[in-house]
Amino acid sequence: MAARNRMPPWHEKILLANGREVLVRPIRPEDAVPLRAAFVLLEPDEVRQRFLHPMKELGVEQAERLTHPDPRREFALVAAEPLPPGEALVGAVARIAIDDNGRDAEFAILVSHYVNGMGLGRHLMRRLVRWAKGRKVLRIYGEVLESNLPMQALAASLGFQRESSGDPGMIRMVLDLPPPKPKLPPPLPGMGAAAR
To answer: Which UniProt keywords apply (predicted)?
Structure first.
């Protein structure tokens, strides 16, 4: 019985402070249409903070790109209504992509003002960090507007440090992850615990 009720990997239901339940899960191709529909509900400042420039709509190609992450180097989560993908309104998107060097990964998070200020951004960021650790990433970074103080504060509260960015008006938030511990070789045959 318990096995039947178990959630798939990276799926979890969260009760927000306003009493609304959302499902945090990996992004799906079916989310492209709801993402485009929800985009027009965003405030201009929300769009600018995430995409770093004004946009009136999320294009079809952009939505397709967002909803088809490369599983070898990208991971994206959504916080959506607990409905089937394609029907659920998406309130937040979090994404991380590993750089070509295999050691660094860039994050981006967008939380709609409808569910902002309820701890969802922190929850999503922790999930991105967990995924990156599992992929043996050593450094996570994100380009954040200088004016985006909430994102800077959120990242700093999770251990991210501020670095100067090459772009004016931008701050780079960086989290160094501990290197993975080397695996110990298996004990030699015939050696007991006392001998080790």
So the answer is: Transferase
